[in-house]
Amino acid sequence: MADIGTEAAATADKPADERIQEISFLARMMRRPELGAIAGLIIVTAFFLIIADSNMFTLSGIMNFLAPAAQLGILAIGAALLMVGGEFDLSVGSMVALAGLVFGAALVTFQIPLPGAILVALAFACVIGAINGQIVLRTGLPSFIVTLAFLFIFRGLTLVGLKWATGGSTQLRGVKDAVGESWFVELFSGDAFEGLFAWLASAGLIDTFANGVPKVKGVPVEILWFIVIAGIATFVLTKTRFGNWIFASGGDAQAARYVGVPVARVKTILFVVTALCATLVAILTVLDAGSTDARRGFQKEFEAIIAAVIGGCLLTGGYGSAIGAAFGAIIFGMVLIGLSYTDIDQDWYLVFLGGMLLTAVLFNNFIRRRVTGER
Amino acid sequence: MAESGNGGTQPLIELRDIQKHFGSVIALAGVSISVQPGECHCLLGDNGAGKSTFIKTMAGVHKPTEGEIYIDGQKTVFENPREAMMAGIATVYQDLAMIPLMSVTRNFFMGREPRKGFGPFKYIDFDQANQVTMDEMARMGINLREPDQAVGTLSGGERQTVAIARAVYFGAKVLILDEPTSALGVRQTSNVLATIDKVRKKGIGVVFISHNVRHAMAVGDRFTVLNRGQTLGTAVRGEIEADELQNLMAGGQELADLEGSLGGTV
Lengths: 375, 266
Hints:
Largest sheet of chain B: 6 strands, mixed
Oligomer: heterodimer
CATH topology of the largest domain in chain B: Rossmann fold
CATH class of chain A: Mainly Alpha
Shape of chain B: globular
CATH architecture of the largest domain in chain B: 3-Layer(aba) Sandwich
Number of domains of chain A: 1
Radius of gyration of chain A: 23 Å
Strand order of the largest sheet of chain A: 1-4
Number of helices of chain A: 17
Number of domains of chain B: 2
Structural class of chain B: alpha/beta
Order of helices and strands of chain B: EEEHEEHEHEEHHEHEHEEHH
Strand order of the largest sheet of chain B: 6-9-10-3-11-12
Helix content of chain B: 25-40%
Distance between the termini of chain A: 23 Å
Number of strands of chain B: 12
Strand content of chain A: under 5%
Shape of chain A: globular
């Protein structure tokens, strides 16, 4: 007779249940994992609209905070896909430095032309991602601990490698001379749509300096890379078979295996994608600065994971969003740069970061329970 | 209790004298069953009787140490679970059937997503997938609110039904159900048993694993009792009483004595 209680709960099995009602638009929105990030973005934007100097939301102000947001965003999208797939990669920050070294050394030390150096760096990323993935999958150890080890190994290797390549310095210079000028460089550094912006300036549609040169010469290329990658990642995750396999691998690897999902292959590819994202950021920043050093990407792994969590990724895997992580990264950039437009001390940034993470986790937890009916 | 066939038709699957050893442990010491089309064959046994090892052998997870498997009369060896699936043997595991955070549609088509588009731009045909999911679930007597609701919002019985509907839709000839009712309440259990009945009427052979004799008696056509890795025998519906099955499962006399003192409640 102990089953009487479940009888009421089980009436949901019946067709034409009076409790089955149309799902409201609001409830539909609530089911989207990126909801928290969108809400957060609106709140933060409103906050700075009220508090900050009006220069923040001019064209140049927006480019100012979108540029660092884009660099973090590329890392965060990789981290988000991997988290949905049920794994972590704490080595992405150090990977930015190590890939920067490989790329810089290929250009400067080995005098390889830019396209070749980029291929070398990307191939290196594939190897590193595959190694991360194989160790995690073959040993069955948590990826948290395996990639924590690589966080230190890669940072150390970067230091050793930089000293070897430069003869004792921890900064490798001369990238700009080695690269020279070509249309190919334009893909990875500088601004895009300069012609368009010059035309907009001459038409008086955007702000210019006194001599008629537009204040914003174009869109920094990292922002375009960021938008393209966010678009591709969102399409893959939500619309494709591989995306479904990512959710399945992170949600329950054993159940996924039983229906024929190649879980090990999916996770290895995700580790490779994460390493590729780190390498792209390395290429963009090294070309931008003309040098690379040992502190590149320092603590970026945590910021990327925080952006992914703000974007709706669960720490336990199987749930999350790539576009949410992109919004999370924009929130970051906005706060990091936005505080300088206010009277607020810059050091509140870290406090804000921690507070944001805590709020996002609590919010995600609440939403997940409501939406998925977990009890 | 003699082995008795079901009218002499070709069995969908037949396992003869299966033995499975794990090192020095003998998990299965000669188990034989066959499943006819449209038959619900109940595999009964207490914990540790070898039920799980046996169904994993049937599903291609384990390779038998000794013994033969015949599919439609052809001797077959499964190298992995995928080969068993290809041969039309689908297994619904008790806990691992569904992923709660994913939608019903995503679960239904997991691993076999229908796609549209060309080259690298192939994407899942969600319109078709959602429609099929709604239709197949309705056929099993479950009206979903919407196909993109998370499986976590479904009851345990409904989850089992999604998994069964999925197996049937993808052309299962033999459906192995691992304790589908053991974690469910009365109402949900009867829903799952009704689903098993529907599946059987389509001509699919069902292997129903349980340690609950009442659930087995409700839908079973034949009953095979496992005890300590051996078949104690196969009985046809109507030839055996629930009490007898219960005693066989428990290994004989002890339970009968115990049951006396419990007033027939076990």
